[in-house]
Amino acid sequence: MAEATEATEAAEAAGAGVRRGRVVEGVRAYGLIAGMWIRSTMAYRTSFALTTFGNFAMTALDFVAILLMFSRVDALGGWSLPEVAFLYGLSAVSFGLADLAIGSMERLGRRVRDGTLDTLLVRPVPVLAQVAADRFGLRRLGRVVQGLLVLGYALAVVGVDWTAAKLLLLPVALLSGAGIFCAVFVAAAAFQFVAQDASEVSNAFTYGGTTMLQYPPAVFALDLVRGATFVVPLAFVNWLPASFVLERPYPLDLPGWVAFTPPLVAAACCALAGLAWRAGLRSYRSTGS
Amino acid sequence: MGSGRLYVAVAAGGFRRYATYRAATAAGVFTNTVFGLILVYTYLALWDEKPQLGGYDQAQAVTFVWLGQALLAALAIGGGGFEDELMERIRSGDVAVDLYRPADLQLWWLAADVGRALFQLLGRGVVPFVFGSLFFPVALPREVSVWAAFLVTLLLAMLVGFALRYLVALSAFWLLDGTGVTQMAWLAGLFCSGMLLPLNVFPGALGEVVRALPWSSLLQAPADVLLGEADPLGTYLFQASWAVALLALGRLVQSAATRRVVVQGG
Which residue segment(s) compose the domain that B25 sits in? Predict the structure, then answer.
């Protein structure tokens, strides 16, 4: 009996070891592939500078729209410009980080359609790592920088009584937000195994999600806010942490402690997205061509 | 007469080509509807704060949002028309084959793009617009004549949109990699067409300037006719002037470019 237990324990330990090994291996492979793409990008420095600027300008357009709105009004849904800029900064940086890290997963639908995903399947590297690092675009830093600039502006002008909790929440919210958006990207990619041509649907949740979060929750219909809180929990990216920092009423009358749950929500989202990814990958049937 | 039939066939081909991807069309309808939903609430908040902003009432602002979502793909305001394909043909040199064809390069691509635009309008535009009209208070005209005038402005908008993107595509003759130009054109299109925010909401002189630029023919002009805010004849004149000027400029650039291709090709 004792031997059997020992054997099981050993097997479990080995299993955990293998699992940890795969994660390490995946991260390593991701780093290698991303590094390769960065070197290849840097071969054309002018093109890199231009596309990064383009990326910056494109995302800045959203904020220009907000500035134009505030050139005519003093508040939107009861929120002032610095407060909306704070929301915008949190959303844009979180989304920008996720987009930088794994935004290329959008292209999965194309690989499924033309059958080039098969090449990734035969390599001894986790497919998720390969797809996430595929065509890693350093130009996406433009979006992160733009978000950071707006966030910096917001922090300079917003007038908050800073406490330790508020200061701590800021980086936690940014990283958790990036985690939540990463989960959305992965789930959207998993959906593309089934959807193929319909890959544009994922834009509604990724780009649509970050656009929605740039505006105060009070602006939107209750059902939309409920959906963004309980179905696709985007509210945890910035609405709830920002409500805490700015001491504003919480959307849907949620209790105050939920502002500190984004890390948990991000972890749960990533776990669910991982399951969805596995199911998607298992359902993959090659085009055979 | 024969060549007229040719371009109709090219346009029909452009229509059918996009009609083939039904799942992609459905996905586009869904995405446009979601973006419309998000935008409509921000506009409602804006007009709650300041009723009659820019001369629109709230229902007109809501109509503007859904019209924008309906026209975004059809007029390729955010890219997605023929220009990427033509640029790639210029870069690879395939355009030399196109120039040998017994058809005019500009008219050929115009026909194909009008076919695409008509499909995108019907396939991707109608559903979000109807959705918006059913679930939100909109300001739609009752008179058939206004709708007819609106359709004319749409056709002219397609011409102006094509003429702008044709110039963008031809830049590939000189630049080879047109990514930067495409991005700039995309930015200008979103900002100056009214897609970002209705141009009548823009403050002061900036508003005057963007309304005079060709991009305002794309969304702002048809919207103002549909909402009864602009005189149709004046709008036709504005759009047609830009269409003629830009198409003529496209011709000029094209002849300069093709001379260059002859020099280069060997």
Answer: 2-264
